């Protein structure tokens, strides 16, 4: 059994991943940037609350100290993410996107993952079978987004796919640098959560499947790849 940290696990895919890993007997740190939302979620699941805002250095250092004092970490699931829709649910396309409107997405979806991974690397490297799962998106795939006639081609947003494509590159470079750690990116599929105002066509149970699976791979599992529930995806 492993000790797993899931960022942004107070709801959505992170919460469902935590539920499944707790049910499988793993020790789970449920990451939440809001202490109260996190406390309620952790109590519901029998997980350990870890207050953690991925955009905040002090928050990440405090979380690291708490996990270190409790014994260490085997699996890190970088799940916290934002899509950056407008208040009425619109996706910001190329005509409207600005550098400033892209910044929060890169802060959370890319720099947040680097901040948390960098902080927890020493603990992961002490584990006998360390694993990192980066929750990416099919919209990160250049092959998919340029395949005419597909839903990925039709998605007009700029910031979200760009941030997840950057996350995929971060995944590959970390995987090459740390061959003893299994580090992969996953695409949950279009899932009904607050991220997309519940427009997703899958349930969280379906969406979390690939995250749960990759969080439990052993030392013989793949590394440096991009997967959905059906297998390897094109970059
Ligand atoms: N839903 C989909 O169709 C879909 C498809 C592909 C990939 N994904 C990816 O799946 C992951 C989970 O998304 P979801 O669909 O489950 O969305 P969600 O229900 O909106 O959950 C997102 C989680 O991230 C947390 N979060 C946001 N910013 C954070 C920060 N700075 N620090 C810590 N936590 C933060 C949120 O916390 P608060 O509650 O405090 O806001 C929430 O717990 C994301 O990386 C997303 O890009 C989703």
UniProtKB/TrEMBL annotation:
Annotated coiled-coil segments of the chain: none
Gene Ontology molecular function: oxidoreductase activity
Keywords linked to the UniProt accession: NADP, Oxidoreductase
Signal peptide region: none
Pfam hit, one: adh_short
Family: Belongs to the short-chain dehydrogenases/reductases (SDR) family.
Cited PANTHER family: (+)-NEOMENTHOL DEHYDROGENASE, SHORT-CHAIN DEHYDROGENASE_REDUCTASE
UniProt-recorded name of the protein: NADP-dependent 3-hydroxy acid dehydrogenase YdfG
Organism of this sequence: Micromonospora krabiensis
